[in-house]
Amino acid sequence: MTIITHIEDLRLLAHKRVPRMFYDYADSGSWSESTYRANTADFQTIKFRQRVAINMEQRSTTSTLLGQSVRMPVALAPVGLCGMQHADGEILAARAAKAFGVPFTLSTMSICSIEDVAQGTGGHPFWFQLYVIRDRGFIERLIERARAANCSALVLTLDLQILGQRHKDHKNGLSAPPKLKVANLLNIMGKPRWALGMLGTKRRGFGNIVGHVGGVEDMGSLSEWSARQFDPTLNWADVEWIKKRWGGKLILKGILDVEDARLAAASGADALIVSNHGGRQLDGAESSIRALPAIVDAVGQHIEVHMDGGVRSGQDVLKAIALGAKGVHIGRAYVYGLGAMGEEGVRLALELIRNEMDITMALCGKTDINTIDKSLLLPGTCPA
């Protein structure tokens, strides 16, 4: 039996159990992957202040995100194709998040539909991530479906107007439908646990799209539709239109520049996410953790600032909170758990992160996550 002690153990297990084309989809970046690597590496240069002889009893990681009470200030980020990491993956991840007490965000490009997740979680509120595409009628219908499913926040992704080139996806033939080359078929044959799970579910297409768009009834027609739908004309007027159409809590994802952060705050959105799309869009962009402090300084008094990118531990979460993030979103960290062990793996990933937060807080002499600031960190090691 594999003993899981940290997120890296889950990653290694997911690598063994998930077919290469889907594992690589989640665990890769664009072009040279320099930003993908920097997202994790830049956390390592930030150091904690160890403190002693301080009462460390009654520690709490409980906080709020967008006014919602959470067991820790962490949310599950939107990740496409989760249902290809594990059968019914989005439903399982949402259940784990519900049981643990943190928000789950469903991607537009999910395998399980909005309705699937709503039914699978008993109507428990979750967040829904929206891409801006050319078909505005489809966007309107997605928003209405999210509202009907009791989604409590809309996460609008702004950094995918044009798809970044992801070499591993091209080499693996990842498309809609996937190109099942001989190498891919042989690789899948070596993943019997995954294959049996996929044979046992009916959810193997993009559930939010197939059957909901005229002329898109299968994975083949989806490929043609999706290739022409990402909208390079996206602008702040579209954000305003979506905000009015939705009418609820709105989070803007993909902010990496102070000027864009000011525009996001002025838009009336409730939160922004400092994010470079996990290093999957503009290679050579700044890591999220290094971009975070300047954005917090510029707009943190006016809008809730969250971040994602490179978070692999509870210590990473604490570093982001210390640098001003109100919330931290994890993607790959929970996807590794999902691919490795399904719902139990996601639960375990969340437990690992919370336990690492708790122990690190104790060793730094902190008892309340809501009082953490830069004093948690060693001066001179923090990004400016």
Could you describe the 3D structure shown?
The protein is of the alpha/beta class and 384 residues long. Helices cover 43% and strands 11% of the residues. The chain has a single domain (7-376), classed as Aldolase class I (TIM Barrel, Alpha-Beta Barrel), CATH 3.20.20.70. The protein has helices at residues 7-17, 20-26, 34-44, 89-100, 114-120, 136-148, 167-172, 182-189, 192-199, 219-227, 236-246, 258-266, 288-299, 314-322, 332-341, 343-363; strands spanning 63-65, 68-70, 74-76, 105-106, 127-131, 153-157, 249-255, 271-274, 304-308, 327-330. An 8-stranded parallel beta sheet has the order 3-10-9-8-7-6-5-4. A two-stranded antiparallel ribbon has the order 1-2. Strand 9 (304-308), helix 14 and strand 10 form a beta-alpha-beta unit. The relative contact order is 0.20.
Q: What is the element layout, followed by pairings?
A:
Layout: H1 7-17, H2 20-26, H3 34-44, E1 63-65, E2 68-70, E3 74-76, H4 89-100, E4 105-106, H5 114-120, E5 127-131, H6 136-148, E6 153-157, H7 167-172, H8 182-189, H9 192-199, H10 219-227, H11 236-246, E7 249-255, H12 258-266, E8 271-274, H13 288-299, E9 304-308, H14 314-322, E10 327-330, H15 332-341, H16 343-363
Parallel strand pairs: 3-10, 4-5, 5-6, 6-7, 7-8, 8-9, 9-10
Antiparallel strand pairs: 1-2
Shape: globular
CATH topology value: TIM Barrel
Distance from first to last alpha carbon: 44 Å
How would you spell out the order of helices and strands?
HHHEEEHEHEHEHHHHHEHEHEHEHH
- Measured by DSSP, the beta-strand proportion falls in 5-15%
Q: Total number of β-strand segments?
A: 10
Q: Please give the largest β-sheet.
A: 8 strands, parallel
Proper CATH architecture? Alpha-Beta Barrel
Q: Tell me, what is the CATH class?
A: Alpha Beta
